[in-house]
# Entry
Amino acid sequence: MNYSLKSLEPVFHVAFWVLMFALSFSTTGPFFSTEDALLLTLLRVLTLITIAYIHLWVIIPHFFRKGKFIWYSLAIVGLIVVSVLINAWIFELWNPMIAREFPQKPPPMPQPSGGSRFRFGGPFPQFFLTFATLFFTLVYALGQEFRVKEKQASQLEKEKIKYELNFLRSQINPHFLFNALNNLHATVQLNPELAGDYVLKLGDMLRYVLEECKKEKVRLSDEINYIRSYIFFQQKKDSEWQNLEFTVSGEDPSDFEMEPMLLIALVENAFIHSYTEDIHEQFVAIEIHLSEEEMHFSIRNNLPQDTPSDAQKTKHHNIGLKNVKRRLELLYPDTHEFSYGSFQDEFRAELMLKRNNEPLD
# Structure
């Protein structure tokens, strides 16, 4: 069974005080009867417990964490002195009992009574036990503080990631809606008799964007259907453009889930930047292959020469690719490969996603 550190804290506390009891008993056990040694040890440990939690709950929060280290040092010295004095007082009270218990002879110890009191009732053992208690409670408090700050930092990072993803998605959805409406407008102008069917097809596309894409993950098959619809509108808008390839192979795409609107962002970039005056030169080739280990997506398009009028288009192109890259870094930090660039007379983008990706918490 798995236990969190927080659930084990009481066990750590009990184990620590059992250890301190054993250490304290080792300094009293050889010089007293078992009953007296146990009682003396219990009183010493109760003193240490009181000092430990005063240190933990009062002195550390009010002095150490606020940077008042001089006051903190004075408080530590005060706790040690108080602990040693209480210990001496306890053993002084015990001396009459020792005399009554051994009326005919001194306690069974090799040193004189003064020396023996130093060994089991003097300041050194209690000083050592008190110092060790204060040291470990400080380490414990610092560990607790580190754990809390680490948890807060982790939560802030998750919130930041969610905020960035929501921002990136908000950039995508209006953009796709705008392009879809432009495609519908062109279709109505070129083929008004088909406008009704196209409106229904566009409705399916918008439903996917506005409803399905709100989910953390969508099925690859749904993303593929959206790409097919997008290609359909592109072809209807420009009937002369026939150099389009879209192939899907491998495993069932409905069994693979991924971040929505990643692939279509790359498809749209390819279409936007493949337009050229020579219709025979422009092309877009898309391949999706799903294996048992990964999903591989590749897209190629012709690379026309940029002109001054293409400056805005190129700027949007770079923003779109950076958007995709950032989303991949946030959602698939260690389980993706993404590359893009110009190769001779064409532009290529390739994406690989492992199948064992888990949704972001």
User: Anything to note?
Assistant: Residues 41 and 306 are 87 Å apart (CA to CA). Residues 98-121, 307-315 have pLDDT under 50 and may be disordered. The longest strand covers residues 294-302.
